[in-house]
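Notes from the 1:1 (GR / supervisor)

We went over the backlog. Supervisor wanted to see one worked example end to end before approving the batch request, so GR pasted a single chain during the call. The sequence is below; no edits were made to it. Supervisor asked that the structure be written out right there so they could see what the output format looks like.
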Amino acid sequence: MQINLSERTLHVKEGEVSFQRGRKKYHPIIISITDELGKRIGLGECAPLAGISCDADAYIRMSDAARLINEALESDDYAKHLSPYPALLFALESALYDYQQNPLLYDTPFAHSQAGIPSYAVVDVEGYDQMLNRCKRMILKGFRHLKLRIGVGEGDDVLKVVRTLRSRFSEDTLKLSIDALGTYGLDEAKELLRELKPYDIRMVEQPIKQYQWKDLAQLCSMAREEGTSPIALDEELIGVNVLEEKCMLLDTIRPQFIVIKPMLHGGITGSVEWASEAMKRNIGVVVSAAQEGSIGLRNVALLTARIFGSKCTEAQGLGTGLLYRDDTEMDIEMHGNKLWRSPVED
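Structure output shown during the call:
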């Protein structure tokens, strides 16, 4: 078995929404594994997000990633060794599981091209008219769940869009989620949640900045007691890589949902752990890509199918499709609102 690392530069397609606003280029490290004859290939993608990932500065040089991989594979438990580096762990685990065709990921209806994974489309707030037009385009493409991302000063526009969409589509026809990106203070978040209450919002992600457990717990309690929009944690999970800390976070904040991004939240091992602990507590789970290319998106989808099995009925965060115009062609494709794996040739 031989492990190779390579760097790539990918460019965001015109009109597509990247995870970080304004980002036009993406520089992943690709891990490929081959056998002695070069016939079996496993692929993984390492894509930490600058200013967001807990390991964003860990791979300034590709040699840093290679060193960490070698050290991990020489240890007794490579996943534990790489737990502080979730992006690299996700890439290495994905490549190894792909190389081995490990049934953990490759024995599901999705992996066998027998079922698609329902997905939502992400729409950025860029003014009311532009946002509404993009929502219409996504609906025409077949999406039945939209996630609206809002930043500082954009709350009024998103409320106008929500009101417009709800005047035309019921919750049964179109589901809506909000990603607040930690934009609000506590009082502002409360006001937003109360304003959204009549519009059947599936969840509001990270309404206030991370590390404010007491305030987040208050918002989650408010959702239970007043029936305001359910709260989902996203950025709050970043850097929480130890099981005991995960349990403490979930038990303290008691969110209605968590949004797991394997590239940010612990790779395959850490994501399965997050999902397991959340489900034990009747906390809803959503699995999402971040800004991965097709290699990473494929592996997030395989993991999503493993976490939910045949019970994946709610939309997951896989609706990015192929975000980059010069990406690697992989065996996944969007059909309407579902991501499918193309049939595997014998």
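Supervisor's comment: The first strand starts at residue 2 and ends at 7.
Batch request approved.
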